[in-house]
Amino acid sequence: MSKQPTPAKELTIWEDAQKMIEKARRDGVETVWDRFAQQQPGCKFCELGLTCKNCNMGPCRISLKENGKMQRGVCGADGDVIVARNFGRFVAGGAAGHSDHGRDLIEVLEAIIEGRAPDYKITDEKKLRTVAAELGISTEGRETIPIAEDLVEACFADFGSRKKELGFVCRVPEVRQEIWRKYKVMPRGVDREIAEMMHRTHMGCDNDAVSTMLHSAKTALADGWGGSMIGTELSDIIFGVPTPAKSQVNLGVIKVDMVNVLVHGHNPVVSEMVLAAARDPQMLAQAKKAGAAGINIGGLCCTGNELLGRQGIPMAGNHLMTELAIVTGAVEAVVVDYQCIMPSMVQVAACYHTKFITTADKARFTGATHISFNTATAAQQASEIIEMAIEAYAVRDQSRVEIPVAPVDVVTGFSNEALLNMLGGSLDPLLDAIKDGSIRGVVAIVGCNNPKFQHDSQNVGLAKELIKRDILVLATGCITTAAGKAGLLVPEGSEMAGPGLKKICSALHIPPVLHFGSCVDNSRVIHLCGLIANALGVDISDLPVWGASPEWYSEKAVAIGLYCVASGIPVHIGTPPQITGSKLVTDIALNGLEELFGAAFLVEPDYAQAAEKMDERIIAKRLALGLSA
Length: 629
Ligand code: SF4
Ligand code: MSK
Fold this sequence. Notes:
The chain is α/β, with parallel strands linked by helices. The chain has a six-stranded parallel β-sheet. Strands 13-12-11-14-15-16 form a six-stranded parallel β-sheet, with helices on both faces. The longest helix is centred in the N-terminal third of the chain and has 35 residues, at 79-113. Broken Fe4S4 cluster binds next to helix 13 and helix 23.
């Protein structure tokens, strides 16, 4: 007898997702939850981190011998070394993803300067000058282009191996920099730390788990204060700094009478052009000629977040909604760049009339339509993409269309600049609110979904639990759509907050959860922590702040978590990474890092318990700063 599928209500908390899971089942479409079930039970050795395939004497896996001792790999590596090496490579993978994204933005800025990217421009010259000045580039009396040239050089140099410290380390409190120097984790060059991690974890190199873990922290710091920060800052310079604006979220943003194009991935370079093409009157006329009311650009995951923050486009969904968005039957094209794009989307798209269009040569998908995107011809290529979508609209089968819910309003587009602006140009009102306890602490929740949890149950549960305790939440990445659907991204959401936070939200007319951008934009969070710590004359680890990623899944999430921890921000995660096969490595993650960096990981699968433990630490930090609990 075949097993009954799990009821959709148990898989996700959202009505739009539940309805689309049921439709997917009717339409014979396999989803992430089906494949997750097929994969159970997972490999225990891998879950513990105790498998190694770093050389061809293996693969090896470590278990207990009959005498109670742990086995060793063929080369003699013990479980601690194998777990630490696997973890180090996991972090390097995440740091590489973010940082290569950052490098792509430097190349676009360089192409703009050299006249090779006619469809792009420097949108925020003020930010260009501010960032350049921070990095020691002279700006006084100079034209924009020479400053931009120097900035490009400075950013490229941060990827190399000639520097002793990354440029944006200037944003880190001096006392924290001293800690990094003391433990030799000061990040030097983004590519250098990642390459060194791959070298260290080759057979016969770094065979000391503690040493490998320290280099993992250094690699993560090169991501946070290097690759990711460059990605954020240059995106702001090229496309503009996010400013608060209204938008909408959930599958209801897909319109039954429009040509729907969803942008997915992380880098705004392609999606900004697709949006511009969709707004072109010529394209609109073509769409109307095809019988559509217009062209609708919706976001998925972090490319969506980039455009949501800067352009206010609506968000169709987060990580686990990406397949389900296509299942509505009303999506003409999904245009992707890179990262977090499930390979299965090619197959899901093939079940409908949806074009699945890849644009990055480094992220090809078998079976997809590939357009090798080039900044020299960006506008023209974006128009081709929109034309393909309009053609697809003509063959859409309206009888298969189901838009499950009405959209929900959100306010989006917060950034450090927007925050400062709202506060009248100074951090003082925020500091005063923290000091008087109206805002007792700040927690950045980093998105992600993972089918190991009921979709978004932990993300939303934790956010609600925190704001109730007068803790301001900053949302990055995939929690954005979840928080929006839960009504937390509008000022009225402060009805769910404690009295102090509610008072601040009412005064500033802001939501209790502030959308702070994509997962790369966690660099905004560490920058903000650096600004607050410097303003108070303390270290980041003295602040009543946390990071959290209750439903994390990706290598990038671990890199983010580790750069936060090494920067002094403790991080809650809902499931452990694959390290629990080593007591030593697990102890470093949960306790040892606290001794070195004043922050460590908290693993807690229950959001209510997590909020309680996070609050305990916030109280301790507040008391240590001489503030009321
Ligand atoms: Fe086995 Fe050592 Fe080779 Fe890893 S490096 S596969 S533990 S022999
Ligand atoms: S897309 S890394 S699932 S936040 Fe940035 Fe979402 Fe996590 Fe990917």
